[in-house]
Amino acid sequence: MNSAFLRSLLVYAVVLPLAVLIGWMLTSPYNTESLTVVGAVAFVLLLPIILKYHYGLLLFSWNATIIVFFLPGQPSLCALMVVINIAMAVGYRILQRRPLFIHVPMLTFTWIAFALVVLITAKLRGGVGMRALGSSSYGGKQYFYVLIGILAYFALASRPIDLSKIIRFTKTFYLSGLTAVISNLIYYVPSLWLLYLIFPSGLASSQAAAEYLGLQMTRIGGFSAAGTAIAHYLLARYGLRGVFSLRAPWRMLIYFAVVSMAAMSGFRSSLVGLMLLSAILFALEGLLFSRWFFVSLLVGGLTLAAIVPISNKLPLSMQRTLSFLPIDVDPVARFDADASVEWRVMMWKAMLPDLPKYFWLGKGYTIDPKDMYLTDYAHRAGYAAAFEGAIVAGDYHSGPLSLYVPFGLPGVLAFLSLLVACGRALWLNYKFGDERLRTLNRFLLAMFALKVIFFFAVFGALPSDTLGFAGIVGVSVALNRGVCRKPAAERTKTALGGVIGLGVTHA
Q1: In percent, how much of the chain has pLDDT > 90?
Q2: Domains of the chain: total
Q3: Which of 154, 194, 227, 295 has a CB 3.0–4.6 Å from the CB of 258, allowing a cystine?
Q4: Quick check: 155 and 58 in contact, CB under 8 A?
Q5: Which residues form the domain of 220?
Q6: What SS3 class is residue 102?
Q7: Distance of CA 360 to CAs 119, 121, 355, Å?
């Protein structure tokens, strides 16, 4: 009996029983145990591909709306790829003596300092309890995503990005956001609802609620994310000048189409975000004091004038998006938008008396299930406002509150130091980086500025925004091989007392 026959026999002895087991489990696809086993088997089979393309998969997963359904708590694909890339970086360090990550001291130390604040707070506030892992308390998932956001920076900085593949990187990183609209499309085809195991159903929840309650207005979150993803790709690759260049008018048409698509979602933040991003890029590209400033004002004025006569005839979701403008919109859209703002103002007023309690030591994320139950019961009985349940859950819809309440003054200082270090790194890379990266470095700096403005002034949530900040600065470090400094030959000489010349760097 030859060795080839024995190998074939061994393969069949493993594969056939495994195929029978998976086939039997697929007869009950909604059973939790079946899903876990099938998912784990698929993961093992895909492991060679994951190990070979782990960094590319990390870049793809960053903006992708995909969950890993067979793991406890159903984490995002991005969270899984962050862990895998950190493990691979450690493995390469041990086996091949590669650097663990691109070391930038001002970034490394501020990320670690923020992580220490999070871990110390978790320890002093009852630990990291996760119901998905059998704990009797809630809230651990928020700790998990804050820490994953911190690790995500080091995962992205674990290797440099090849500049010869910069176009492929830009497409992979930004256009993966188109997966967000799949959740909304699946909703229209009930036979495909099984795919909600991969694409989270949360984005389609407003569609389901509108249909069930007979609401006039439906907000489609996937349109916002997908439109924003395409707009970000165009701006990252071509810049504002390139997008609105008359030599390639198709870019301008696509940009206006996706902006309209984002406006159809019903989320004001999507349209405001794109407008602010364009304004920041407008200034960074030196157009603020050019003739294009007056051209843009004229185009904006004409657009607003064209919208005014038909504003109350647009779809309700678009009217809600445009409700921040001084135009006439349907009372239903206006009321829904104003109620959202009032809800946040009431939350701020309710939280103000308790803020001094968290000055030195934050509240953390640990939640007692009894508090959740009693708050929910009080709300249903009419004794508690709707926002009080969000307060108990730590869902403040406010960046400053989501930072200060869980982590107190130490967390605020650590996070602000982190933002300063990230902003400085992005500015240096934009100022002194490779000319081939000029447009992309400018876009990353603009995105960082936009995210800071949104976090503190519009809408913020620390667990998700930590990942967002890490993505911007981590990509910048990987693209520029660290943080660029002003070349020595270009350093200015400053005379001291007319005798001593000191070389002063501006980095």
Answers
A1: 18
A2: 1
A3: 227
A4: yes
A5: 77-88+95-488
A6: coil
A7: 15, 10, 10
